[in-house]
Design the sequence.
């Protein structure tokens, strides 16, 4: 990966991170935490929050970078925001369904 692609990927990650941080204002959203708890049980809540904080924006940034191929700062930021927002919306719906099925 050349330097320009690395910079664009970093900018896309910043957009994805911004969306993730904004998603923290919704109490219903659990991110990747339910999956991580099943994968790595018996850890502290802080551990799961920290792992989720890195995993979700990385997934969004990689998807945005590969699928949208941003070429400038503006397109990188918006690629990260749009794909992370889409990913967050999908996970929010999935997590709600998982929690409802666990309570039945």
Sequence:
């Amino acid at each position: 990966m050349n330097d320009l692609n690395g910079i664009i990927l970093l900018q896309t990650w910043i957009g994805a991170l911004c969306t993730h941080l904004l998603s923290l204002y919704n109490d219903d959203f659990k991110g990747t935490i339910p999956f991580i708890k099943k994968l790595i049980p018996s850890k502290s809540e802080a551990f799961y929050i920290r792992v989720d904080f890195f995993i979700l924006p990385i997934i969004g940034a990689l998807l945005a970078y590969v699928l949208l191929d941003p070429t400038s700062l503006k397109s990188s930021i918006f690629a990260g925001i749009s794909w992370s927002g889409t990913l967050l919306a999908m996970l929010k719906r999935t997590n709600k369904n998982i929690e409802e099925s666990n309570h039945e």
Observations:
- The CA atoms of residues 17 and 54 lie 8 Å apart.
